[in-house]
Amino acid sequence: MLKALIFDFDGLILDTESSLFEAWREIFDEYALEIHMEDIEVSPAVDFDEMADLTEGYSGRDISIVCREAAMEPIRDLQRTGRMDDEREILDIRPVSRDDFLSAIENIRPATPPEDVKRYIDWAEGS
């Protein structure tokens, strides 16, 4: 997690790491759950705090690509096992798992270079 320290006007040091995490969590929630995963069953074992942490530095667009990739994995499982031709199997698709998200995160890298993200954060914090 990015560690950012800034000075408040009265000289107190504020640790903004938790607020940055909350911002990434909010981005992940908005792009992942509300937009791309609302009609898709996701395993309760998926820890979205963990996913938000793992996608730090990803843009909203990057996160949406990760979510689409993860959501496709149960369908790919049906294709690999030859069950895609059976309509009953299609209706009984498994939930998107933690491993599906981890695999997608491993394969989808952020489009914005980390140096640019750091430069933007520094600019936003006024340094």
Descriptive report:
The protein is mostly helical. The protein has a single domain, classed as Orthogonal Bundle (Helicase, Ruva Protein, domain 3). Helix content is 58%, strand content 5%. It is built from six helices and two strands; from the N terminus they run E-E-H-H-H-H-H-H. It has helices at 17-36, 48-54, 60-80, 87-91, 98-107, 114-124, and strands at 5-7, 13-15. It has a two-stranded antiparallel ribbon with strand order 1-2. Strand 1 (5-7) and strand 2 (13-15) form a beta hairpin. The chain is elongated, with a radius of gyration of 18 Å. The relative contact order is 0.15. The model is unreliable at 1-16 (pLDDT under 50).
CATH class: Mainly Alpha
Termini gap = 19 Å
Low-confidence stretches: 1-16
CATH architecture: Orthogonal Bundle
Strand content: under 5%
- Taken from the alpha-carbon principal axes, the silhouette is elongated
Quick take:
By secondary structure, the chain is mostly helical. Helix content is 58%, strand content 5%.
List keywords for this structure.
single chain, mainly alpha, 2 strands, Helicase, Ruva Protein, domain 3, 127 residues, disordered N terminus, two-stranded antiparallel sheet, 5% strand, 6 helices
Task: List the topology elements.
Elements: E1 5-7, E2 13-15, H1 17-36, H2 48-54, H3 60-80, H4 87-91, H5 98-107, H6 114-124
Antiparallel strand pairs: 1-2
